[in-house]
C-alpha cells in the first residue's frame, strides 16, 4: 500500500488542452476524429459519407488515404474555400495527414521527347495557402467540442505524459577539498548529483546560476569517488584563464593544467604550444 501511495504522489500532472498541440496528421489521433473534421469542415453530402467518401489509415504503411477524393466535385468548400480547381480540399487534406507539402505539376515533354512533369509554381503557391487554411481550421476545431477535447487530452496523457524524469538530490554531498568559504546552493548540488549519477547531462541554467562551479565540483567529486582519473574541460581560448582562476578559487589545492597562448601549468611551470581557438584544462 505504501508503494502505491508513493507512486501516486509522483505521477505526472495531466496536461490540459492549452498545453497540448494537436497537429493535423498526428498518428495518435484516431480516424474517427479526422472523419468528423472532414464532415464538419467540408460538409460533403450525407449519402457520400462512409461509402463514397471516407478517411482511412493503414497501420502497415503508416499512410492516410481519403477515399473518394474526386466524388464531391460541386462542393465550393472543397474547390474554392479549402481547395483550388487543380487540387481539391480532399487531396490537400490527404497530403496534410501524410505530412506532405502540396505540389501541383503540369505535363511536359523534355528535349529527348519523353513525357515528364514540371512544377507549376503559381498553382502550388495557391494550394499551399489552402493547406495553411485547412491546418488553421483544424487548430480551431479540434478542441472546440468538450467531449472531443476530453477524449484527446486523455489519449495524449496516456501516451506521452506517463513517464516522470528522475529527479536528483545532491543534499548528501560533502565536497572534501572545496573552499570552506564557498557553499554551493541546493540547485547546484542537485546538478552535481545529476552529473555523477545521470550520465550525459545538459546544464541549461540561466546565466549567473553557477554552472561553472557545478562542472568543477562534479569533476573533483568524480575523481575522488574513482569515477574518473583525469577530467578535461574544453572552453573558448579567452576563457581559459578565467576558468583556471575560478577552479582554484573553488578548490585551492587542485592540481590544474591550463593551456593558454603561451603554455601554462600553474603548478609545474611546463610550457605547451599554442592550440586551436578552443583551449583546454586538465584536472
Descriptors for this entry?
283 residues; alpha+beta; 2 domains; 3-stranded antiparallel sheet; two-stranded antiparallel sheet; 9 helices; elongated
Task: Explain how this protein is built.
The chain is an alpha+beta fold and 283 residues long. It has 2 domains: 23-142, no CATH class; 186-282, no CATH class. The protein has 9 helices and 7 strands. Strands 5-7-6 form a 3-stranded antiparallel sheet. It has a two-stranded antiparallel ribbon with strand order 1-2. A two-stranded antiparallel ribbon has the order 3-4. Strand 3 (105-109) and strand 4 (115-119) form a beta hairpin. Helix 4 crosses helix 5, helix 7 (186-197) crosses helix 8 (211-224) and helix 8 (211-224) packs across helix 9. The longest helix is centred in the middle third of the chain and has 22 residues, at 121-142. 22% of the residues are buried. Residues 267-275 have low confidence and may be disordered.
In short:
By secondary structure, the protein is an alpha+beta fold. The protein is built from 9 helices and 7 strands, in the order H-H-E-E-H-H-E-E-H-H-H-H-E-H-E-E. Helix 7 (186-197) packs across helix 8 and helix 8 crosses helix 9.
The total strand number stands at: 7
User: What's the alpha carbon Rg, rounded to whole Å?
Assistant: 30 Å
Query: What is the mean pLDDT?
Result: 89
Unreliable stretches (pLDDT < 50, length at least 5) are 267-275
Estimate the helix proportion, in percent.
25-40%
Number of helices: 9
Strand portion: 5-15%
Could you tell me how far the N terminus lies from the C terminus, measured between alpha carbons in angstroms?
Answer: 48 Å
Strand order of the largest sheet: 5-7-6
